[in-house]
Amino acid sequence: MGAADIVPGVSGGTIALVFGIYERLLRNVRIGAQALGSLVKFQPAQFLKRFLSIEWTFIIPLGVGLLIAIASLTSLIDRLLDERPEEMAGFFFGLVAGSIFVAVGLLHRRSGSSYAIMAAVGAVAFFLLGFQSTPSGSPPLWAFFGAGAIAICAMILPGISGSFLLLMMGMYAAVFTALHDRDIVSIGVFGLGTIVGLALFSTALGWLLEHHHDVLLASLIGLMLGSFRLLWPWPNGVGIISEEPGESKSGTGLELPTADNFVVPVLLAVGACVAVVVITRFMPDDTDRTEAQQSVSV
């Protein structure tokens, strides 16, 4: 999930969905949000009860792995995106394509309405992902708070990455610069925004998953379909996002491939797609995933 969140067109939520831990992750995030709510309301007994009910043996290893991946792979992935943009985009295109195949299998019922939702959400996402805001050099603190609250949603929302949400808001370079310069105030406000955003969004998403499972899942699949706009390998892959304010290269351009850069991206896409499907076949089933697949085979 950490490696996926580095790439502008891939979401950590997509990886969680593929590996069968999406609903489990969302459930624990909701419990954490409820615990924070109890703390804000000065209900220590309720806070402690909910805090202890979080699956820490699941959350801690996941969080550690995520942070290690971000710390160790950021430079490598950035370099590959710079030096091999079409090949990297092809690889991630295949990952998301395989993820969509797996996600369709998690629907309780495959109906015409589900496919219509996928198509509609995918078309809207495809259109909206073509927009990018002008990078902001010195944004106010409230902008860091808002950026954190919105970008963190990508962790539990398959189909779009936090990196690209920051890019769309014109905040990518500002947040990266704050991290590089160890701007404690800006980083702290950004972190506070992520906590608030994750608490609010996970609660709403969890309710939808419980009461409108197939509608929500079809919408998430639509988001993944729309993200293909970012992952289309040509002309320049997912694009290069500069650390410098005011300098970025769009990754939303759509062109046909040339003969000299067609084969490798396509082979990587096919290989990645097959790998995702094969891996999920042998992945130990999560309880939620097992229940979801009782009525339909992937």
Could you explain how this protein is built, in words?
This protein is an all-alpha fold. It has one domain (2-292). 69% of the residues lie in helices and 0% in strands. It is built from 15 helices and no strands. It has helices spanning 2-6, 12-18, 22-40, 44-53, 56-83, 85-104, 112-128, 141-151, 162-168, 172-180, 184-211, 213-226, 228-231, 263-282, 287-292. α3 (22-40) packs antiparallel against α4, α6 runs antiparallel to α12 and α6 packs parallel to α14 (263-282). It is globular. The model is unreliable at 287-298 (pLDDT under 50).
List the helices and strands and how they pair.
Layout: H1 2-6, H2 12-18, H3 22-40, H4 44-53, H5 56-83, H6 85-104, H7 112-128, H8 141-151, H9 162-168, H10 172-180, H11 184-211, H12 213-226, H13 228-231, H14 263-282, H15 287-292
